[in-house]
Specification:
The protein is of the alpha/beta class. The chain is built from 9 helices and 7 strands. It has a single domain (7-197), classed as 3-Layer(aba) Sandwich (Rossmann fold). It has a 7-stranded parallel sheet, with helices on both faces.
Length: 198
Amino acid sequence: MARPGQIIGLLGGSFDPAHDGHVHITREAMKRFGLTHVWWLVSPGNPLKAKGPAPLATRMDRARTLMQHPRVTVTDVEARLGTRYTAETLSLLMQRCPGVRFVWLMGADNLAQFHRWQDWTWIMENVPVGVLARPGDRISARMSPAARLYRHHRISGRASQLLGRADPPAWCFVNVAMTAQSSTAIRAQGRWRTSSDL
């Protein structure tokens, strides 16, 4: 799936369900951060969430139907690797794909609570991180422990194209035309069946 020289953005999450907001930030990330490809890492589950998601196969099918782009791959690589945490996944991908430059992608809402992730400083120290602004999360993200600790390693939004080739620690926060759509709202409206509904 990967060749040396590629710059691959990794967008991880439960995608429970995938929606147009995911598609939007994926396309923006490719443009803003100079990525050659993006992988959607559809996780078996989120360690920070008590309630389990819909079945993996269901979420993968929806994501593949929604995300139609020749340079975007929807994958269940975390389930196949048997990893539970992002740092574990990144470490194995870097070992198995020498010469590939990975960039971790996240919404600003995730940056705001990034310090709660397992081995989050290892992620910042080993992989460039691209942060895309989402509604209501800009201030909390910029004031987060991760943003404060790594403030001297931030690449300005005007230089965002440099992120994919930057040596970590390096991160970039970009403002994008925003969409308020979220998986949480879709589930709350009863338009998606979760594991507890099956």
